[in-house]
Design a protein that fits this description.
Elements: H1 12-36, H2 39-65, H3 79-108, H4 115-140, H5 144-173, H6 178-205, H7 215-223, E1 228-240, E2 243-252, H8 257-272, E3 278-285, E4 289-291, E5 294-296
Parallel strand pairs: 2-3
Antiparallel strand pairs: 1-2, 4-5
Helix pairs in contact: 1-2, 1-4, 2-3, 2-4, 2-5, 2-6, 3-5, 3-6, 4-5, 5-6
């Protein structure tokens, strides 16, 4: 049993470059939005600011998660990325609510908007967001933290495209309500992109069974291993991106220790097929009575296995 440490799929240098580019553009877009009087452009700048913060958190989390386990954090720092993703998602929700409030104020009190400036600046934002999204695409497949940053950038690319359309409509028709309406669309997009990340991050922190994994199928695969008579106290949870753990008790017939080790290795192999990389397997002999932490043959054959499972305490 042991931990598998994966190399980050996205380099720290590429993440840092994306972060610097994003913060630089936020300043330009915010200034242009204020000058043009465009709430949609200011909303997009706020979303880009959240993107920059997301990238900063992701960059830090990539570095932290690569640190080795120590005497205090025996599972290492894998969950730093999960915490970063959760903070990221909450920040997005707050920003979306702020944009919604400001858009409602604009609908009640319309203000003139410079459509030409909106089109030019939003086009620049779209190009930047698509470039950074492409940079992060590979890491987003395997890392929740990077996926959070990736979805930030994709959502903002879509928002920038919407702002361009709005700028064209404003430029051609002069209708100012397009701006706050688009801002509401952007706010909804932000909420949608943040919910999935927040839901998954909370699931990891609560040590839920990983999404798309059927714990009944895991139990059945263990029971199907030759030599295993039964399985109980089965727990499967995510330690961090790419690291899934499992602990269980398996019941075997009374046999030599070497045979028990072979069964244990076969169970570990069966669990690996589910992507489980860290296992803790306790072997119990059929017919033994479990009293606290001890297994005694005094109870004789057929004694019911009824005991309190002492769940491992984890510090991440």
């Amino acid at each position: 049993m042991g931990h598998h440490h994966h190399r980050p799929a996205v380099s720290h240098r590429r993440m840092a470059a994306a972060m610097v580019m994003t913060f630089g553009f936020v300043a330009a877009e915010g200034a242009a939005g204020w000058w043009a009087g465009s709430l949609a452009l200011l909303s997009d700048a706020a979303h880009n600011l959240a993107d920059g913060l997301a990238l900063a958190l992701a960059w830090y989390a990539l570095a932290a998660s690569a640190r080795r386990a120590d005497a205090r954090r025996t599972f290492g720092y894998h969950r730093v990325g999960v915490l970063a993703a959760a903070v990221n998602a909450v920040a997005l929700v707050v920003i979306a609510l702020g944009i919604t409030w400001e858009a409602w104020q604009r609908i009640q009190h319309p203000a003139p908007v410079a459509g030409g400036t909106v089109i030019l600046v939003a086009a620049g934002a779209l190009a930047m967001n698509l470039l950074v999204s492409w940079w992060l695409r590979a890491g987003a497949r395997t890392d929740l933290n990077v996926r959070g940053a990736y979805l930030h950038m994709l959502a903002d690319a879509a928002a920038s495209a919407a702002v361009i359309v709005g700028g064209i409509v404003i430029h051609l028709t002069g209708w100012p309500l397009v701006d706050p309406i688009l801002s509401l669309v952007i706010a909804a997009l932000i909420l949608w992109s943040s919910w999935g990340i927040l839901d998954e991050a909370v699931g990891v922190l609560l040590e839920a069974v990983p999404a798309r994994m059927d714990i009944q199928a895991v139990g059945a695969a263990i029971s199907a291993v030759p030599g295993v008579l039964g399985v109980h106290d089965l727990h499967v949870w995510t330690i961090g991106s790419g690291v899934v753990a499992c602990s269980c008790h398996i019941i075997v017939a009374e046999q030599a220790a070497s045979s028990g080790q072979q069964v244990q290795r076969a169970v570990t192999a069966a669990l690996a097929a589910f992507g489980i990389t860290h296992t803790t397997i306790q072997i119990e002999v059929s017919g033994c009575a479990v009293d606290g932490n001890y297994c005694s043959q005094e109870g004789g054959e057929g004694h019911e296995h009824d005991h309190v499972h002492d769940h491992h305490g984890h510090e991440h």
